[in-house]
Amino acid sequence: MNRRTCLLALASLPVWRIAAAAEPDQAPPVTFDPVLPGRTLTFPADHGAHPGFRTEWWYATGWLALPDGSPLGFQTTFFRVRTGLGEENPSAFAPRQLILAHAAIADPRLGRLRHDERAARVGFGRAGFESGRTRVWVGDWRFEQTDDRYHAQVSGDGFGYSLSLVPAGPPLLNGAAGFSAKGPGPRDASYYYSRPQLKVSGSVTLDGRTQSVTGLAWLDHEWSSEYLPQGAKGWDWIGVNLADGGALMAFRMRGNDGQAIWSAATLQPAGGPAQALPPEAVTFEPLRHWRSPRTGIDYPVEWRVRINERRFLLQPLMDDQELDSRRSTGAVYWEGAVGVTENGREVGRGYLEMTGYGEKIRVG
């Protein structure tokens, strides 16, 4: 195998296998940029990429409505990964940065996700990113920002979409002004902000038929070099657009025993300031499970989430929203649209992500 063929093969490997393929004595260890408290997030600069950090993602999810009112869920996720490989190598083939992307449509009429994935080494126009504004692409998939409007373009296996996403307000900073602790250790953190209540318009193509859609979405942008605290196997996360115009983000890091290692939330009342909530204010209680017929993984698909004194019930748009991304990031996870009720009344819609219910999740 010649050098070019070897590097092309390496760039197609899942991220965690790329790290394993590197020989430690071939190059000096790479120092990734650290996440430190007190840094002020600035916009529009922080909408763009941060290539000095190990892992970064732009993650858009939401509920859509077809012209007949039928609901769909959608996901667009672009990952930028600094591999730590080839940084002293001037060759354009060195896989210093990778772009990976996942896309999915949740269609209750089908009963399972339509999903696809892409992965490529940055360079030669095949994949790339920009700093200073959101623009990231791999092949003909892209997620980009013009002024304060985002656009998602995906053409996958049996589905596609072209969506415009318009924010209702400024970025929602999670944690301490965007410094989001993920565990008790000082290195267990990310820089993290959200854009809730994104107004969506555009079109979705399913099995060759294109229809217009409208809806609401949620965007997360997060970057870090150390994401999982010691002993964590995965996480449970929600991003909810509340019906009154507010927003809720909550997560817990979960250990091998299924118990929370760390939890946090951001609650933004409609028209009011955001509240960053500590671990003791947040609990996730699983209520009902679903077992995947493909992987045998058992996922809790209904939850009761406590945020201070409030209790939210999460119920899925459909049970089978498992996404198998072993060809890119090496992970199998559940990523799905959920409805949210409080005291028996619908109060919002959002997305639930659950990782590490099979193998331990690997980030970067």
Structural features, described:
With 364 residues, the chain is mainly beta. The protein has a single domain, classed as AttH-like domain (AttH-like fold), CATH 2.40.370.10. Helix content is 4%, strand content 54%. Strands 1, 2, 3, 4, 5, 6, 7, 8, 9, 10, 11, 12 and 13 form a 13-stranded antiparallel β-sheet that branches. Strand 22 and strand 23 form a beta hairpin. The longest helix is centred in the N-terminal third of the chain and has 9 residues. It is globular and about 60 Å long. The protein starts with a helix and ends in a 10-residue tail after the last strand.
Summarize the structure.
The chain has 364 residues and is mostly beta strands.
Task: Summarize the helices and strands and which ones pair or pack.
Blueprint: H1 3-11, H2 15-21, E1 55-65, E2 71-82, E3 97-107, E4 112-121, E5 127-129, E6 135-138, E7 141-146, E8 149-155, E9 159-166, E10 172-173, E11 179-181, E12 189-206, E13 209-226, E14 232-242, E15 247-255, E16 260-268, E17 275-277, E18 282-291, E19 298-307, E20 310-316, E21 322-325, E22 331-342, E23 345-354
Antiparallel strand pairs: 1-2, 1-13, 2-3, 3-4, 5-6, 6-7, 7-8, 8-9, 9-12, 10-12, 11-12, 12-13, 14-15, 14-23, 15-16, 16-17, 18-19, 19-20, 20-22, 21-22, 22-23
